[in-house]
Automatic annotation (TrEMBL), chain A:
HAMAP family: COQ6_monooxygenase (MF_03193). This is Ubiquinone biosynthesis monooxygenase COQ6, mitochondrial. GO terms for cellular component: extrinsic component of mitochondrial inner membrane. Its cofactor is FAD. It catalyses: a 2-methoxy-6-(all-trans-polyprenyl)phenol + 2 reduced [2Fe-2S]-[ferredoxin] + O2 + 2 H(+) = a 2-methoxy-6-(all-trans-polyprenyl)benzene-1,4-diol + 2 oxidized [2Fe-2S]-[ferredoxin] + H2O; a 4-hydroxy-3-(all-trans-polyprenyl)benzoate + 2 reduced [2Fe-2S]-[ferredoxin] + O2 + 2 H(+) = a 3,4-dihydroxy-5-(all-trans-polyprenyl)benzoate + 2 oxidized [2Fe-2S]-[ferredoxin] + H2O. Pathway: Cofactor biosynthesis; ubiquinone biosynthesis. Its main location: mitochondrion. It comes from Hymenoscyphus albidus. The gene is COQ6.
UniProtKB/TrEMBL annotation, chain B:
It comes from Hymenoscyphus albidus. The lineage of its organism: Eukaryota, Fungi, Dikarya, Ascomycota, Pezizomycotina. Its main location: mitochondrion. It is a peripheral membrane protein. Belongs to the COQ4 family. This is 4-hydroxy-3-methoxy-5-polyprenylbenzoate decarboxylase. GO terms for molecular function: 4-hydroxy-3-methoxy-5-polyprenylbenzoate decarboxylase activity; zinc ion binding. Component of a multi-subunit COQ enzyme complex, composed of at least COQ3, COQ4, COQ5, COQ6, COQ7 and COQ9. The keyword Mitochondrion applies. GO terms for cellular component: extrinsic component of mitochondrial inner membrane. The gene is COQ4. It catalyses: a 4-hydroxy-3-methoxy-5-(all-trans-polyprenyl)benzoate + H(+) = a 2-methoxy-6-(all-trans-polyprenyl)phenol + CO2. Zn(2+) binds at H175, D176, H179, E191. Lyase that catalyzes the C1-decarboxylation of 4-hydroxy-3-methoxy-5-(all-trans-polyprenyl)benzoic acid into 2-methoxy-6-(all-trans-polyprenyl)phenol during ubiquinone biosynthesis. Residues 278-293 have a biased composition (Basic and acidic residues).
Length: 511, 299
């Protein structure tokens, strides 16, 4: 790193920190530059304004957001990520091959990503927007349809949509996108802006409070030691480090919740066509089975992504099947009745034959379910355990948690990643406010605004999603009757439907 | 309906309103659509008679009352019991029975192959030639003893779903196997005991309602039902596995005792034997009474 540049940055930083710190920083910077990034384990730690642990969607978008905003663009930022980011830099996918880890981004999240200048780095030809949802009860068959263009209550698409890049100015419920497409775009945006010290391929070995040295009193500052021995002191340490967050552990924040004893089975699938309405009218499908909801979300062309929440044992059976039988099982999951599905999970093979026989004896409307799955992308079947976790608090002195470090939610509403983006947006606003007012961005009192804005919003949403899972995880006849009645009523109330829809699209208001 | 539609079309209502009012919602399946006697939909399978709700309830009550008042008709020609069975098992019970079949390999094989039990599909001379301990021989022996034939079963008419109709047909045709494996005779007393067993084991309302015929039994028979066969029916109905998914045709050459053990069925006391012993006892009692009466007369 150019010493002139780094000292320049330190001088700019002096506006938001005490003179001693600035001096210390200037001196540290020089030693950092000569040691080519490897910090001195014996000496004083590097001092940063924001150290973000975790280079997932939440961490990267926080850094991109801070760098892109004029008020915070001169903060000294560092990213610590366990894995190498090279795959993100060299992200060059095959046109008809998709990652199995896809997430739905609400228009609100996309608006935020657009605002921080990251959305234009996303490969748009690999993102699929959809304007309709069909959700139905796997036991009673009662369904609810959401259609943004129709009566479901309109949701404005983001700017780019309105400009007509995809030839449609209609409403969008959400955008299906591969996580890697998003993270590589965020990384490109960060590297375009520059100025973030990225420590990739390095684990967090230790987090502890710093020492009182002659030059700086770091006793209330978290100091992170990475696996390469680099030491970083953080004015604000952001934990974007996932469900088993070391930052949360350091802060002593308890994360409470329960395991669902379910796993989310994901796969990339090829359907027989681009959807019943063609490329322009994609629909997301979700059927609530007693073992958990199964969802088919559209990707460009004939591709779709599957998220099937099911028990670990059934997921293991599904993974062991031949590709043809697996495809037959996915088709069955959207078409056949529960007794058939129960049986099909008990046999080791031959599902394809059984399913084609049962389809002739099962009443369903072909146009109301996803088109036939014809192939599964090799190696794309994977599963991950589903949990409900919510941290007691998102903040502590010089600590903030975002994304999965703060909360894990059942994927049935496709809100996990969007909640993380919401956290980042709120935390960025909070940091901007503090910088603008000359306040310390790391003290607990100054972080309160972030926790206050996000905690209850997330908590309510997580509660609703959790209850939905529990409501549909039963075959009890009475419960099925009541929930079907409720769903039928909601389906007929356009106002309520529109409200649910706007909530799903990430619009704010009411709560 | 078409008359009504043409009248609406000729009216001067806004066209959009007419369109929304006359179109049926696309996601409602024809199966669930309401109809009246005037526009009965076409049958879903050969011999199917679609019934309205009112007709279904009326026929269920009618057949139940008639069968109760006229048990002789119910026994000799099975139409009343058949109608009662079909009209009371829909919508829930027959579907549940079908779902039970869908959960086991043998049940699924039956639904897929749809075997029928008639004298042409099961060769009775062949069954009689099987070893004495086999299920096939037991079945043939039972048919001969009771003087019945497997061909006396009516076709299912009132079940709407074509597959469920087959399940009802299958139940009806397997009924004789239930008789054979439990050894219960076709007289009213044996029939009532078996119906009790079926009610518990298969969950068909008709079987449960048929147990009401216990009221028409003689006093001795009734006390025997409450004391012996009723408890047997409940215990075995619960303990045995659901008999609807048993592929009897594949078990014909198996040892009948082994089959009973596998299915979890315990043979009840032989009703024929009990009745015979009872008759014997009564006759002896009468004779003794006469003898003592004679003695009194002499002395």
């Amino acid at each position: 790193m150019n010493p002139v540049l780094s000292s320049l940055r330190a001088r700019q930083l002096s506006g938001v920190r005490c003179r001693t710190c600035a001096r210390l920083l200037r001196r540290e910077k020089r030693s950092f530059a000569t040691a080519s990034g490897a910090g001195d384990p014996e000496g004083d730690p590097e001092i940063y304004d924001v150290v973000c642990v975790g280079g997932g969607p939440a961490g990267l978008s926080l850094l991109a957001a801070l760098r892109s905003h004029p008020t915070t663009s001169r903060l000294r930022l560092a990213l610590i990520e366990t894995q190498s980011l090279t795959p993100l830099r060299t992200f060059a996918p095959q046109p008809d091959s998709y990652s199995n880890r896809c997430s739905s981004l609400t228009p609100a999240s996309v608006g935020f990503l657009d605002g921080i200048g990251a959305w234009r780095h996303v490969r748009r030809e690999r993102v699929m927007s959809y304007g309709g949802m069909r959700v139905w009860d796997g036991v009673s068959g009662e369904s609810i349809g959401f259609d943004v263009d129709g009566g479901g209550g309109g949701v404005e698409g983001v700017k780019e949509e309105r400009e007509g890049t995809e030839g449609s100015n209609g409403g969008v419920v959400a955008y299906m996108n591969e996580n890697v497409n998003l993270t590589s775009a965020l990384l490109r945006r960060i590297e375009e802006l520059g100025g973030v010290d990225i420590l990739e391929g390095e684990k967090v070995e230790d987090i502890a409070f710093g020492e009182d040295t002659p030059t700086a009193d770091l006793t209330s500052w978290p100091v992170i030691t990475t696996s390469s021995g680099t030491r970083l002191a953080a004015r604000l340490l952001v934990g974007a480090d996932g469900a088993n967050s070391p930052v949360r552990t350091f802060a002593g924040i308890e994360s409470r919740g329960w395991d669902y004893n379910r796993v989310g089975l994901v796969a990339t699938l090829k359907l027989s066509g681009p959807g019943w309405g063609g490329e322009g009218k994609k629909i997301a499908y979700q059927r609530f089975l007693p073992t958990g909801p199964v969802a088919m979300l559209p990707l460009p062309g004939n591709m779709s992504t599957l998220v099937w929440s099911t028990t670990p044992a059934l997921a293991a059976r599904l993974k062991s099947l031949s590709p043809e039988d697996f495809c037959a099982m996915v088709n069955a999951a959207f078409r056949l009745r529960t007794p058939d599905l129960k049986f099909l999970h008990t046999i080791e093979g031959g599902q394809k034959d059984e399913v084609s026989w049962r389809e002739t004896h099962t009443k369903f409307s072909r146009e109301q379910v996803p088109q036939d799955v014809v192939a599964v992308q090799p190696g794309s079947i994977a599963s991950f355990p589903l949990k409900f976790r919510h941290a007691d608090s998102y903040i502590s002195q010089r600590i903030a948690l975002v994304g999965d470090a703060a909360h894990s939610v059942h994927p049935l509403a496709g809100q996990g990643l969007n909640q993380g983006q919401g956290d980042v947006e709120a935390l960025t606003q909070n940091i901007i406010y503090n910088v603008e007012h000359g306040a310390d961005i790391g003290t607990r009192m100054n972080l309160e605004g972030y926790g206050k804005e996000r905690y209850w919003r997330n908590h309510v949403l997580m509660g609703v999603v959790d209850k939905l899972h529990k409501l549909y995880a039963t075959e009890n006849l009475g419960v099925v009757r009541v929930r079907s009645l409720g769903l039928g009523i909601v389906d007929r109330l356009e106002g309520v439907k529109g409200w649910v829809m706007r909530r799903a699209a990430g619009e704010r208001g009411l709560f | 309906m078409s008359l009504l539609r043409s009248r609406i079309l000729n009216s001067n209502l806004p066209r959009e309103l007419i369109a929304t009012c006359t179109l049926t919602p696309p996601h409602r399946e024809p199966h669930h659509r309401q109809f009246s006697v005037l526009n009965r939909p076409p049958p879903n399978y050969e011999g199917h008679v679609p019934l309205t709700k009112t007709e279904r309830v009326g026929m269920a009550i009618g057949s139940a009352v008639l069968a109760f008042l006229n048990p002789r008709r119910a026994e000799t020609n099975k139409d009343l019991i058949a109608t009662l069975g079909e009209t009371t098992s829909q919508p829930y019970f027959i579907t549940r029975l079908r779902d039970t079949m869908l959960l086991t390999p043998s049940g699924r094989r039956i639904l897929r192959l749809r075997p029928r039990i008639t004298s042409s599909t099961l060769s009775l001379p062949h069954l009689r030639s099987l070893p004495k301990n086999t299920l096939g021989h037991t079945y043939a022996l039972w048919l001969d003893r009771e003087g019945v034939s497997p061909d006396t079963r009516d076709a299912v008419k009132y079940i709407d779903d074509e597959e469920c109709a087959y399940v009802m047909q299958r139940y009806r045709e397997c009924h004789d196997f239930y008789h054979a494996i439990t050894g219960l005779p076709v007289w009213r007393e044996g029939e009532v005991a078996l119906k009790g067993f079926e009610a518990v084991n298969l969950g068909l309302p008709m079987a449960g309602l048929s147990v009401a015929a216990v009221a028409t039994l003689k006093k001795g028979e009734r006390s025997r039902f409450w004391g012996v066969y009723g408890p047997w029916a409940v215990e075995n109905g619960v303990g045995a596995r659901c008999l609807i998914d048993v592929f009897w045709e594949e078990l014909l050459e198996r040892d009948v005792g082994e089959v009973r053990r596998e299915l979890g069925i315990e043979m009840p006391v032989d009703l024929r034997g009990v009745r015979k012993a009872e008759r014997e006892r009564r006759r002896k009692g009468r004779e003794e009474g006469e003898r003592s009466g004679d003695g009194l007369g002499i002395n």
